[in-house]
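Illustration 12: DNA adenine methylase.
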Amino acid sequence: MSRNKTPLRYPGGKQKLTPFIREIILSNGLDGGHYIEPYAGGAGVAMELLVSGDVEHVHLNDSSYHIYCFWSAILNFTEEFCNKISSCVLNIEEWLVQREILRNPENHTLIEVGFATFYLNRTNRSGVLGGGVIGGLSQNGKWKLDARFSKRDLIERIEVIASLKHAVSLYNKDAEIFFSNDVKSLPEKSLIYIDPPYFNKSNRLYLNHYKPGDHERIAGVVQEMERVKWIVSYDAVDEIMKYYSNRRSFVYDLQYNASRAYKGKEVFIFSDGVVVPRNSAISYINFALKRESKNLHFGVQ
Ligand SMILES: C[S@@+](CC[C@H](N)C(=O)[O-])C[C@H]1O[C@@H](n2cnc3c(N)ncnc32)[C@H](O)[C@@H]1O
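Figure caption equivalent — predicted structure in token form:
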């Protein structure tokens, strides 16, 4: 059984930071509560926390229709989706068919779009939906397109998640609308983990329409949320540090698989009400990143 609980690969996926986020949940008495990702993507942390029973309910929002279709299909049409995994052919002809579905979602059902999203996520380099296939179109690379497509393991992950369907709420909204409309009905015992598209370097990786002004506006909306506790992660560029300069934060180095050349600093920012488990934060982040980070700069500001 694989360590990851999410069936999606996500460049910069944060599931390796789950122990740190779990520590925040425990330190703030939020265990057994609700956990929310307004920019869910592969929802790696949410799935770990749900499957382990640390939280009772997760809310996943993503403005990408493709990502929404995937989550909705595995939760609501589990058997059909898993049958599609069992019977799918892993070759370039099928990859082209799935890419066509991904490019023209309006001509297809939710299950078809959800499956195409999954198929390309598992067969493309770094899981980037708009990127190239593993091994190239001629399939003469070291790795072939099936390198990340262990059918049995992926079906198992999906079945585990679907068995917890009653504990998952799905949304397909712009995060700003989610913040304004949906956060107010969350129970007080909630933690919102906000992992927006990066300020720099993100266009290639994700659907992202955010310009610098949008990040600034989102920072304003996020910092107005006082009733529930939240944490934010970002690339630690000067602009982001400025937008959140009145909040506590810490910066660490992180290297992504999706673009090996990019080694950047990341930052975690905390709402004022969050108790930050200081010493464990250092050791967990250190532990989670030790293979990827040579220099860890830590300092709660
Ligand atoms: C940095 S990724 C999140 C990765 C996630 N934390 C994980 O571990 O897999 C950002 C996600 O935000 C979504 N997104 C981009 N713009 C958005 C918006 N305005 N509102 C909601 N979601 C958005 C993208 O589709 C992408 O899935």
